[in-house]
Amino acid sequence: MTLLDVRNLSVTYAGGAEAVRGVDLRLDAGQKLGVAGESGCGKSTLALALLRLLPAGTRITGEVLLDGEDVLAMKWGRLRAVRWAGASIVFQGAMHSLNAVHRVGDQIAEPILLHHRATPAGARTRTGELLEQVGLPAARADAYPHELSGGQRQRVMIAMALACDPRLIIADEPTTALDVMIQAQILRLVQRLVAGQDLALIMISHDLAVLADTCDRLAVMYAGRVVEEGPARQVHEDARHPYGQALSAAFPKIGDPASRFAPRGLAGDPPDPSALPPGCTFHPRCPVALDICATDDQALRPAGTGRSAACVHTTGPAPLEKARPGTS
Ligand SMILES: Nc1ncnc2c1ncn2[C@@H]1O[C@H](COP(=O)(O)OP(=O)(O)OP(=O)(O)O)[C@@H](O)[C@H]1O
């Protein structure tokens, strides 16, 4: 059953940055979707748009249907109910997301009190259970954020995200700020919490290998657009879009120790979303670009069973839009 249906979602920041452009995504109940892409490709903007957490003045268009209800069209009161209880977000860098002057237990209890109309004693019991679920002693509820390590704080953030029994968790680079050993622990925790449950997950990372290990499906974003989508392992091991191929070559393949020593980086950076190049936005960096790529962008189209890509090499020419006049 479809839990999340994102249709033609676009986000433009007040300054004119087109951070997300025409994204379509579908997620079934309990399904795990990875969203990959370099820094600046619009992954966090996409996550924030799903719960309308973007700064005032940002233009969001399209539809975000959560259980059939459009988050983008909801009244404020309904939106508040959907945040935490329908879907919740675990951000990167827990220190900035937690309030430094409140005990972590009180911060976990807050959404429980708000959404479940629990008594303070009931909320405290539930907080203890949640802390134990994420591998912390219940007594850590009395700690302030600065008394916890980075990994412990991220566990608290995950406990908060679980507090109201959401059907969807969005994890935005949940391990980025942590050292490698702790990263692995937190990833295992997320995998354990979502495995075999009806809890859907959108996990955002620049690391395809991590996503392939955790998720069922994978969407690769470039310059605000999904350029490739499909079963996670297949996209990681045999990407169809040249950007997906470059991204996956930059990280070791699961179970392939040789690839660990031969990462191939991609020259250059993603384009400035306020001044996107005409045609396919990847063409200036693409090793296999054709003349047509400088003028015509390609729509995401079928590229094998259950897979899609937006590349003239994979799917043949079918322009999404002509280059804007004066831009080529
Ligand atoms: N509040 C904002 N105002 C204007 N532009 C913004 C704002 N937030 C992000 N951007 C721009 O939108 C683009 C997409 O940023 P976003 O953070 O979504 O990318 P990302 O793929 O999540 O990158 P990272 O992995 O570094 O978080 C970037 O060019 C960024 O500079």
**Which class do the helix and strand fractions yield?**
alpha/beta
CATH architecture: 3-Layer(aba) Sandwich
Q: Span from first to last CA? A: 44 Å
The overall number of domains is 1
In one word, what is the shape?
A: globular
Uncertain residue ranges: 258-263, 322-328
Helix content: 25-40%
Strand content: 15-25%
Name given to the CATH homologous superfamily:
P-loop containing nucleotide triphosphate hydrolases
Report the order of strands and helices. Answer: EEEHEEHEHHHHEHEHEEHHHEEEHE
Count of DSSP H/I helices: 12
CATH third-level topology: Rossmann fold
- What would CATH call the class? Alpha Beta
Question: What are the distinct ligands in this entry?
Answer: adenosine-5'-triphosphate
Radius of gyration: 20 Å
- The largest beta-sheet arranges its strands as 6-7-8-3-9-10-13-12
Largest sheet report: 8 strands, mixed
What would the average pLDDT be, to the nearest integer?
88
Number of strands: 14
Protein described:
The chain is an alpha/beta fold and 328 residues long. The protein has one domain (2-86, 164-322): P-loop containing nucleotide triphosphate hydrolases (Rossmann fold, 3-Layer(aba) Sandwich), CATH 3.40.50. Helices cover 32% and strands 23% of the residues. It contains 12 helices and 14 strands. The protein has helices at residues 43-50, 76-85, 94-97, 104-116, 120-133, 150-162, 180-194, 208-214, 232-237, 242-249, 257-260, 312-315, and strands spanning 2-12, 18-28, 32-36, 59-66, 69-70, 87-90, 168-172, 200-205, 217-222, 225-231, 296-298, 301-302, 308-309, 319-322. The strands form 3 sheets. It has an 8-stranded mixed β-sheet with strand order 6-7-8-3-9-10-13-12, sandwiched between helices. Strand 9 and strand 10 form a beta hairpin. Helix 4 crosses helix 5 (120-133), helix 4 runs parallel beside helix 6 (150-162) and helix 5 crosses helix 6 (150-162). The longest helix has 15 residues, at 180-194. The termini are far apart. Mean pLDDT is 88; it is low at 258-263 and 322-328. The structure holds adenosine-5'-triphosphate. InterPro entries: AAA+_ATPase (IPR003593), ABC_Ni/Peptide_Import (IPR050388), ABC_transporter-like_ATP-bd (IPR003439), ABC_transporter-like_CS (IPR017871), Oligopep_ABC_C (IPR013563), P-loop_NTPase (IPR027417). Its main location: membrane.
